[in-house]
Prior knowledge:
The chain is an all-alpha fold. It contains 8 helices and no strands.
Amino acid sequence: MQQRLARGEAAALGELYDRFASLVHSLAHRVLSDEGAADAITREVFGYVWENPDAYDPKQGSMRSWVAKLTQRQAVQRLRQDETSSYEESGLGSTEELEQKVRRASAAARADYIVTSMPAPLRAALELAYFQRRDYRQAAADLSITEDEARRRLRLGLQLLSSANIRPPEGAAPPGYGRAW
């Protein structure tokens, strides 16, 4: 793909767009919470890929990871610009609050990317546990797998999510627990 892009093959960009546009748009929307801004980021990311195909280094990871990193970087930069302008105009809020908002949006985008990138069996187990409040036994029954396999999938899925470096807000307690994290 990279070589085709470097040769200027428009079809390669079309294939890349078909493959990753929904990922780019959803990550940008997650950070910016704005459909129009997410559309703009999507155009900017694919424009950058088209103009700089040699910036991708396969030794650093997959094309999907590279495109996701570009998206996150561009969306966070846009969020900082927009929020800084908004804070300066209104005189409300501090730089610290802005950075907290940017960190939360960035962590959420990383988590979204990790969940959407993980294999379907892991994602299904996590969705059952998180959204439907199933324990590993119930998840095993729902997925028609052994309890050991359900535990393995949940553990691996959570390990992948932990790589997003997500931290709860100060004093926040996870659902169903009476103490802070």
